Amino acid sequence: MIRQYYPILIESLQVILVLLGGPLLVGWVRMLKCWTQGRRSAGLLQPMRDVTKLFVKETVLAENASWIFRSTPYIVFGATLMAGAIIPVVSADLPLAATADIIALVAIFALARFFTALAGLDTGTAFGGMGTSREMMVSSLAEPAVLMSVFTVSLVSHSTSLSHMVHELTTVSFVLRPSLAFALLAFILIAIAETGRIPVDNPSTHLELTMIHEAMLLEYSGRHLALIEWASMMKLFLFASLGIALFLPWGIAGIDDPGMLPVALVALAVKLALTGVFIVLVETGLSKMRIFRVAEFLGMAFLLASLGMLSYFILE
Amino acid sequence: MSLSLAAQINSVLAALILLTSFALLVQRRVQGLLHIFAWQGLLLSISTAVVGYSAGLHHLYISALLTLTLKVFALPYILYVLIHKLKIHKEVEEVVNIPTTMIIGIALVIFSYDLTSPIRELSTLVTRSTLAVALSTVMLGLLMMITRKKALTQIVGFLSLENGLFFAATSATYGMPLVVELGVALDILIAAFIFGIFFFQIRTTFDSLDLKEMEKLKEDE
Amino acid sequence: MPSPFELVSASIIVFLCISLVSALFANRQSILVKLSSALSAAACLVAASGGFLSVLAGSTEAMVLPIGLPDMPFYMRLDPLAGFFVSIVGLLGFFVSVYSIGYLKGFLGRRSVTPLLVFYNIFMAGMLLVLVSDDAYFFMIAWELMAVSSFFLVFFEDEKVQNRRAAFIYILIAHIGAVLILLSFGIMAGFAAGFESFNGYTFSAMRSANMPAVWASIAFLLAFAGFAAKAGVIPLHVWLPEAHPAAPSNVSALMSGVMLKTAIYGIIRVGFDMMGTPQWWWGGLVLVLGLFSAVLGILYALMQSDIKKLLAYSSVENIGIILIAVGLSMMFAYLKLNTLAALAMVAAFYHMLNHAVFKGLLFMGAGAILHATHERSMEALGGLIGKMKWTAPLFLAGCLSASALPPFNGFVSEWLIFQSFLLTPALPGRLINLLIPLGAAALALTAALGARGFVKVFGITFLGKWRGRQGALVTEVDWPMRAGMLMAALSCLLLGIFPNLVIGWLDAVPASVVGGGIGETAKASGWLWLTPVAAERASYSAPLVFFWMVLVVGALYLIFRARGGTVRRAPAWDCGFEKMTSRMQYTATSMSMPTRRIFGFAFSIKEAVTVIGRGGSAIFPEKFLYRLKVRDHIWNFGYKPVSVASFWLARKVGRLQHGRIQIYLLYSFITLVVLLVFA
Fold first, then answer.
1. Residue B200 Cα to chain centre, angstroms
2. Which residue in A306, A313, A315 is closest to B15 by CB distance?
3. What does the pLDDT read at residue C646?
4. Nearest 5°: phi and psi at A42?
5. Residue that finishes a domain, picked among C270, C296, C321
6. What domain count does chain C have?
7. Which of B98, C75, C372, C452 could lock C134 by a disulfide, CB 3.0 to 4.6 Å apart?
8. Residue C322 domain-assigned (yes or no)
9. Under DSSP, is residue A87 helix (H, G, I), strand (E, B) or coil?
10. Which domain holds residue A304?
């Protein structure tokens, strides 16, 4: 009985995990940040409270906002949740994981960004256009680097299907692989850029000249803003768990192994908590870069990813 | 320590040495350059020790120790003192911009890989696959000497080139004879001193360490 | 039930008849537009169904027409390879012909549309004849028919200097290409039946020719260069961004969507079919040139602010992507990895089909914008989404496809190409292994830059506020135009959602070219899942992605609907700045500024800001003039020296001309004497 519904159960568990995990991770990061800066924190649940509050607030639309602007939050949320249903977070045995492999996953994130960028232009304001132009610059450089980085992993695991990659990496005996180390470094740099964290972008700024991602969202309010904020929290969670699944998959429950699930959940929590610590250390230690330094930063990520691929062929 | 684990560790170290070579290329600050160079020396010394352990060749320990003292402490210190004495400008000045240098660098790595692949087929040592990295380190050192303006960056490029040669020696033939190695170490030390003296000379003559000034030395037709 | 070949031949005849009729009834313009375009649409449908059936059945039919020179009859043949291209030509031709019913009305009263209609149909017939011809002689005639008729179509609006210039550059490069192709055929025919005989001119003779490797390579290189000139491969692309914008939009759609594909057809026909097995370095060459075209094409596209020019450069990019897949397929075929060769080949064919549909759609959309606003520069457009309620979403579908975003069609083919790239470790030779993933990175860069470009096209043109003349009256285009675009947009979506059906259909083509197929493995896990190699290797389910998006978006919408949240309209906030005007928006030029800075080395950029102040001083500025000129290096380094040299030569030769009849007679006399002495 339970075996029959196991795929559905695990998929629902995953989606719920992604929906709740995003705000929790962001809450954790903010909490840590407060502590490092000697402030009192608002607690782990504050991002969730923010989102629920936004849902009940009135939604104000700019005068000439079109249907693109109105539908973007839904599309962004849908695409992010789609990605959430695909990335193996706690178990490699994920029925929907086959819907899209890693290349399609990158493209699904790109779809969300495409619409966000259009929404930035839709209201016809100066800042919206600025945000769009910058965001597309960052993403157009980050996307090839992210693909290069994950290609290295898929060369190692002979697959681009996510759950198969996790399966392959967890079952094969451990080997020190410089290629994966490079790919991980590159992935971290890109994840920082893609999720709009310091030093590439600052998610908490509304200072006109420094913002990238936020500039596109300036005109959003109410439930539209809630959906977008929620989606971006999930995106942070998903990039963290994608990194975990590709580079530190140990602990993720294997195929046909439901007994491992509690362990997998604990392992995930620990890994994400450490990721949060890492993010805070980076964000406290560094300041935001000049916009055209970002190109070099991403160039570095690309270099690292290429070195990873080269060292796969040269050294392994 | 099993042989394959040693080989794995060695290839990780090789990868890191390659990374430091690239880091030297992208670094913009002179001080940072010295730090990275010291790191490269440290990695090299560890790698030598690992190779020495796994192959049971104890003279490599001495090489490792020599590398450690010379390249991790002595040379960076001398250069550090030089920077302070000469009040060298903090930024590295490049002839070719950094992204282009990186692309050329990647091309050089591929080239050295292609060049060393016949040797890989012949050699039976566990460390043979790192030969390509060693050759790339040499190439990248040369690239750095070509594409940077200041004399100091040229020294660092030269020293990193020497690191590459040393690495090639350990990975291809388990190191040079100790006598040769001692001689080379001494050479480098003396070279560093001579460079130091030259720096002072260059600067008193031209009031600058920019190598462009040296173009003035050629005779006019 | 007529056979596929009969259907295609019938459509060719119909096209030629329509052309004749259009020439005869030139004085009934408004009826002629409707009648001729509708007939063309019908003929296109017939041709498309012929091609479709031919691929479906995997059949080959041949025929010999007893016309042409004595002892040199025309050979015709329709195999699955040709059938695939015929169906693309027919499909896009159908959409565009329906669209033309509305679009050509815009010319009524301004100029006679007769030449357009006449050459439009000859052009269609020419393309189909290129595809079905089976001998070098007939092929060259059809090729010229296609080139010359499209030349006149580019020349149609000849009052503008740049249109005339574009047409001349186009015909020049087309003819250089044609000469190269002819030389290649000459070599192949020579080896087929000896250099003294004409019998080698049929393709079947060339197929059985036994050529030494060096000559085969020379013949391939000549043919490749010739076809590359037609396809707009960098560095032979200069005519493309001039000619495509100059032509009327329905013609640009066809030129970009399908005419470029006939050149790819030529490359595949010569490289795979007539030469037997390709050499591996041919594949490498095609791959490298493809990569260059893809990356540089999209970079140049990003710099444009003319919407049609941007789309034209994007065609260069897409041709590059197709060539990448063709090149990979050649390498795999050389190594006898038939399944992998088939995978790359299917990716190439799928992308050709996709590009035909979405680029056709985008050019039709650009035509609709042009029709409604009489403006091609994005700097003077904006906010059209409110006024063109149909064109906007249809154009958006095209943009999403062109940016390779799921669930639209462009993504499926790029995904297949990525899969072929990731399978290259199966190749022997470690250096190739190492280099090819870098090619995958370049393709990824292309895709990402493509998305950037199409955000710019759609965002600047349709979103924001109107940037153009005050009080300009913009209305939505009429029904036939909408119908043409709607069908193309729907095809984009359907081709994206049901890739398995399409791959199952076109599997006969790689089977006939490289002797392998992926139809079985692709559908091994059911219709829902696309698994080109094996399920554990990679899988993609477009229907699930689509239905998931519909489900989540729909559910969220319904939840908010049920809760009855209020929406209030207010002026844009914009960080509290007031009195925003439409001139404060980002423009096409400012949108692409970051790319211009980062990839500046790929262009020659001239930028100048002039400050005009009160009383001529710059201290109290009143007006800023910003001038930007972006050119590709290839023009400066490759073409400018040639054009300067030929002008120089022409001036020297021109000295021979004095205009005095006696001197000309003297020339003739000297020639005569010389000939008599040496004869």
1. 23
2. A315
3. 87
4. -85, 0
5. C270
6. 2
7. C75
8. no
9. coil
10. 2-315
Indicate whether C183 pLDDT > 90.
yes
Peptide bond preceding C407 in cis form (omega within 30 of 0): yes
pLDDT of amino acid B83 = 80
Asked if B98 reaches chain A (Cβ–Cβ under 8 Å), the answer is yes
Task: Find the domain containing B115 and state its range.
Answer: 3-212
The answer to whether C552 contacts A118, with C-beta atoms less than 8 Å apart, is: no
Q: In C269-306, which ranges are continuous DSSP H helix?
A: 280-303
Nearest-10 crossing angle of helices B98-122, B131-147:
150
Please indicate whether, in this complex, the C-beta atoms of C570 and A60 are within 8 angstroms of each other.
yes
Contact between chains at C571 and A62 (C-beta distance less than 8 A): yes
What is the C-alpha to C-alpha distance for residues B161 and B143, in angstroms, rounded to an integer?
9
- Between CA C262 and CA C265 the distance in angstroms is 5
Nearest-Cα distance to chain A for C598, in Å, is: 7
The Cα A223–Cα C568 span in angstroms is 12
Of B11, B26, B109, the CB nearest to A178: B11
Inter-chain CB proximity C536 and A123 less than 8 Å? no
* Residue C24 distance to chain A (closest CA, Å): 48
CB contact under 8 A, A176 and B11: yes
- Partner A contacted by C448 (CB < 8 A): yes
CB distance B117–C430 less than 8 Å?
A: yes
What's the CA gap between C403 and C399, in Å, rounded?
Answer: 6
Determine the Cα–Cα distance for residues B119 and C50; give it in Å rounded to an integer. Answer: 58
Contact C427, C335 (CB under 8 A): yes
Q: Answer yes or no: is pLDDT of B218 > 70.
A: no
CB contacts, 8 Å: A314 with chain B = 109, 113, 129, 132-133
| Chain A interface mutation, best of B1, B102, B115, B135, highest count of A Cβ atoms under 10 Å | B102
Q: Domain count for chain A, please give it.
A: 1
Q: Which residue of A has its CA nearest to C386?
A: A66
C250 within domain boundaries? yes
- Residue A196 has which token pair? 């709009």
Q: Residue B8: inside a domain, yes or no?
A: yes
Measure B44 CA to nearest chain A CA, in Å: 16
* Predicted confidence (pLDDT) at residue B2 exceeds the cutoff of 60: no
Nearest chain A residue (CA) to B101? A303
**How close does chain B come to C435, measured CA to CA in Å?**
8
Q: Determine contact, residues C7/C52, Cβ cutoff 8 Å.
A: no
For an interface test with B, the pick among A152, A289, A315, A316 (most B C-beta atoms closer than 10 Å) comes out as A315
User: How many C-beta atoms lie closer than 10 Å to residue C66's C-beta?
Assistant: 6
Q: Is residue C567 part of a domain?
A: no
Provide mean pLDDT across the span B32-44.
92
pLDDT for the residue B217: 67
- Write down the pLDDT at residue B111: 87
Alpha carbon distance C188, C206 (integer Å)? 6
Q: Is A290 on the interface with B (CB under 8 A)?
A: no
Structure confidence by residue, pLDDT tens digits, A165-193: 888 888 877 777 888 989 999 999 999 99
Alpha carbon of C162 to those of C108, C239, C307: distances in Å? 22, 12, 16
Chain B residues with beta carbon closer than 8 angstroms to that of C601: 100
Ranking A89-93, B14-18, C246-250 by mean pLDDT, the lowest is A89-93
CA A177 to chain B, closest CA, distance in angstroms equals: 7
Most confident of B8-12, C82-86, C621-625: C82-86
Q: Residue C666 has what pLDDT? A: 85
Of the candidates C95, C71, C56, the one whose C-alpha atom is nearest the C-alpha of residue C505 is C56
What is the domain range of residue C254? 1-194+228-270
Beta-carbon contacts of B8 under 8 Å, excluding residues fewer than 6 positions away, are A175, A176
Residue C487 lies in a domain: no
pLDDT confidence tier of residue B1, bands split at 50, 70 and 90? very low
How many domains does chain B divide into? 1
Q: How many CB atoms lie within 10 A of CB C11?
A: 28
